[in-house]
Prior knowledge:
Elements: E1 33-34, E2 37-38, E3 49-51, E4 54-56, H1 61-67, E5 71-75, E6 79-83, E7 90-93, E8 110-112, E9 116-120, E10 125-130, E11 137-142, E12 157-162, E13 165-172, E14 179-185, E15 191-195, E16 199-204, E17 207-212, E18 222-225, E19 231-233, E20 239-241, E21 243-247, E22 252-256, E23 260-263, E24 266-273, E25 283-288, E26 294-296, E27 305-308, E28 311-316, E29 319-324, E30 330-335, E31 343-349, E32 352-357, E33 363-365, E34 377-383, E35 389-394, E36 404-407, E37 413-417, E38 426-429, E39 432-437, E40 442-447
Antiparallel strand pairs: 1-2, 3-4, 5-6, 7-40, 8-9, 9-10, 10-11, 12-13, 13-14, 14-15, 16-17, 17-18, 18-19, 20-24, 21-22, 23-24, 24-25, 25-26, 27-28, 28-29, 29-30, 31-32, 32-33, 34-35, 35-36, 36-37, 38-39, 39-40
Amino acid sequence: IEASGVTAAHQPYRTTTMNNRNQTAVIPGFPIMVNGKSVDNQKEEYPLLSFRDITYFPMTWKFGVDEFNWDYSFDSINGLVINADNIKLIQRNLPEIRAKNADGTLKNNVAVTPAFVYYEDNRGQIIQASLADTSRTRAVYQLPVWTYGDGETTVYAGLYTEGGQTFITYHQGGATMGTDYLIRLNDDGTTSLINDTRFYIKDFDDISIKYWIGPAPGPGQLYMQGKDGEWYPLGNQDLLYGWAWKVSANQSGGGSNQDTCLIGRDLYILGFNIKAENTSTTGIYKVNIDTSETVRISSREVTGFQIEGDYIYYHSDGIMYRYSLKDREEESLGQLVKAPDKIYSFAVLNGNIYWQDETKRSLHNLKGVDLNPGAELSGMGLAGDNKEYLVASFAETAQSKYRMMIFDKQGKVVFKTSDEALPRHVYITGKKLYFYNITAGTICIGELR
C-alpha cells in the first residue's frame, strides 16, 4: 500500500447475494508494506485484516494521517470525515446499450467534449448525449453494414475529438478496393463528410494538402488544392510521400505516416526516392508549395518527426536529433538506445522529450528515467487548447502503478490514475479534464492543478 496521489473513479460493488449475519476476517500472514516500510502485523494494536482476498487497514490516525496524509476528523455531528489531496472526479453514467465486441466486452467507442458525449450503441448507431444529462440522447449517424461481412455486422468505427470537434472514421469494403471514411459530427446533430478516399488530407488554414495512403503507393502522389477546387501535383515526382518506406534484399514496403507540417510556404513531409530504391532511405523533405522545390533536410534515415517551435525533432539509429528551422543545423540530443533495441515512438512537449523503447515499451524522458516503472506504454498524444499537455496511457502489468498520466509543459505530472483510459478518450480545455474511464465505464470530469 502506497500513498501516491493517484486518482480513481468510484466503482460500486453490486451483488445479488446477501451477506451472512456473521462474517470472518483473518489476520494475514503474508508480508505487508506501507509506503515502502514493513508492517509487523502481529504487533499492531489494530492489525490489518484480510477478507474475501482483499486487505483492509484500520481507520486509525497512524495510517490515515501519518502514512496517507489525509485530512482526517471525527465528531458526533459529522461522524468520520476524510479528505484526500488527490483530484476529485465527477462521474456521468452511460447506458448499458452500448456496442459490444464478439466476446461480450464493450467496444468502448466513445468520445467526449465539454457539451456532449458520443458513443456507439448496440444497433450500430452513433448516439449524441448531453454531458449535463446523459439520459438526453439522439441518434446522429447510422453505421453501414460491412459489405464483406455477414450482412448484419456494421463496419468497425472509431470516434475521436480533435480541435474541439468530434469525428468518426471507418473503412468500408475490402483491404485493397475499400474506402476510408472520415465524418465530422456537428453539435446540432448533423454530420459532414470530410473524406471518402484513400488519400490523407491535411488542412492548414486555407491550404489543403493530400497524399496517397492506400494500397500500392507510388511516386508523385502529393497534391495541393488550388483556389478552383482542383488538385495539382506538388513536389518532386520521383518521391514517394508520406510513407516510412524500407527496402531489403528481397522486398520493399512500409507504412503510411501523418507527420506533415506547413511552416510559411514550406511543407515538411517524409519522402523516399522510389526511383532509386536500392540506395535510398526515408527522410524528411522540405517542399516549397509555390515552386515545388524539394530538399532533403538530413541524410539520416527518419521514419517519423515532430515540429515544435523552431525545431524539427526526430531519431535515427537510437539517437535523438533536432534540426533548427532558423539555422538549418542538426544537433544530437544524445544516444537513447543501442542496437538491437530501438526508439519505438516519441513525443515532444515544450522541448521535453518523451520516448518509448521497443524492447520493454516503457516511457522515458530524455535522461532515460522510466516515468512509470514496470508499465508498458500503450499510447500517447498531445491534448489541450494549445496542445499544452501530454497524455500517456499504459497497459495493465503487475508492477504498473498508473494506467494514465498527464504531463504539463514543465514536465510535471498533473494527473495520474489507476483506471484505464486512452489518449483519444481525453479532452482538456483550460484546466478542465474530461475523459471516458474504461475501467468504470463512465465519463469523468476533474480539474487539473
